[in-house]
């Protein structure tokens, strides 16, 4: 159940529920359903059945399950479901660093650790806030639609940068990146909005990627190749720089 408090000592109730479908799916599912019904009416079964399964696929793509988000200030949680495909030292995005005239500071210039999370069409595409705080920037950048799994997609694809700042000054930036099939980034937030950690911030339609920029002195707690869950998986712990190794098996 949403908004229920659960803990690591058994408090709360954990039951399985059908995930709700985000309203963004309604128009796509309706179009496919009408087309399927029309094909069935004219006895075009070879078209009606695939269109019927397409309706189910659209609903599955836009599913929006409840997530249990750790409530610990030192944790940075995953903003996206998917596969960790890149962990690199890069320059912080210019759009999150420069003075944008709003009177609020951006990220500090210099190298940061970037975690790239690739979302396939089978992953949940609702993105969530990695920390709680105030939205300081939402910067949309037009661009290409290359494979989101490529390194250069971070600089060349259509993307949207979001910067969230906590009351203690800790700021985390992340970027929603459109992919080869994705054609629209749908924001749910705007500058000035107050967010809780794990709160929904937007979605990207039909396959994409999210980059997260960790502050200096913080290393990932996830491994390259690891499958992670938005709003639940702890990406990093502020101020922790331990080396963690894993084995694929």
Features:
single chain, 249 residues, alpha+beta, Glucose Permease (Domain IIA), 8-stranded antiparallel β-sheet, 3-stranded antiparallel β-sheet, 4 helices, globular, lipid biosynthesis, decarboxylase, phospholipid metabolism, membrane
The secondary-structure class comes to: alpha+beta
How many beta strands in the DSSP annotation? 15
Content of β-strand: 25-35%
Helix content: 10-25%
Separation of the first and last Cα atoms = 34 Å
By DSSP (H or I, 4+ residues per run), the number of helices equals: 4
CATH domain class of the largest domain: Mainly Beta
Which runs of at least 5 residues are low in confidence (pLDDT < 50)?
Answer: none
CATH architectural designation of the largest domain: Distorted Sandwich
Mind describing the biggest β-sheet?
8 strands, antiparallel
Quote the average pLDDT.
88
How many structural units, i.e. domains?
2
Write down the secondary-structure element order: EHHEEEHEEEHEEEEEEEE
Could you give the order of strands across the largest sheet? 11-7-8-9-13-5-4-14
Could you give a short description of this structure?
This protein is 17% helix and 31% strand. It has 249 residues and is of the alpha+beta class. It has 2 domains: 1-68; 75-237, Glucose Permease (Domain IIA) (Distorted Sandwich), CATH 2.70.70.
